[in-house]
């Protein structure tokens, strides 16, 4: 007698093999998704909002104060809207978390209901600074992204957009940003969406870089990039070769 689990296993194996054969650059159309940016009044959040809106994405900036979000949205233009964080989360299909590390946990705890069922992209880098420069912090959960996943059990948490220069993102004279975006997550469908969003920005490419358990290394690398930028007076990014 065949058990229900046994009868399903060949189909599961077939689907897994089919997924492996898929072209990794065959990404979904994300042009109709509304993207919310929590922390959208900060440099990184503003830059991401500007670049995505400039690429044609519908973007809503979130802030603790609706007035601040509305002011930032008006300054950026491109049809960007501003809203209080909870309203931003409710109205968005995809939500980018770009808040300061110090307020990361508190912000997400307050938005657990609004982020339920949402695709969340965490781009927060836990860093400390002293006389020697920037250095990586390791949260109890392992990374900022894993902390987000623990705090938002009803959301689909991914990690991406960590290594982008806020200066380049916000500069209207910069036509394209030549860099790769490391994308991490537990579901291929979700990481494909994030890769596709990254690819909408000219010069940018989203590259799958593993599951969330690998997010700490990606977040930590920002400390190295800060050192590179200070030494060479640059706005360095990353490129992955041979793919």
| Physical arrangement of strands within the biggest beta sheet | 3-2-1-4-5-8-9-10
Question: How many DSSP-defined strands?
Answer: 10
The residue fraction in helices comes out at: 40-55%
Mean pLDDT: 93
The SSE string, one letter per element, is HEHEHEHEHEEEHEHEHEH
Q: Please, could you describe this protein's structure?
A:
By secondary structure, this protein is an alpha/beta fold. It is 40% helix and 19% strand. The protein is built from 9 helices and 10 strands. The chain has helices at residues 4-21, 43-54, 66-76, 85-91, 104-110, 144-151, 166-170, 188-199, 215-232; strands at residues 34-38, 58-63, 81-84, 94-97, 119-122, 127-130, 133-136, 156-159, 179-185, 204-208. The strands form 2 sheets. It has an 8-stranded mixed sheet with strand order 3-2-1-4-5-8-9-10. Helix 3 (66-76) links the parallel strand 2 and strand 3. Helix 5 (104-110) packs parallel to helix 6. The protein is globular. It starts with a helix and ends in an 11-residue tail after the last helix. The relative contact order is 0.13.
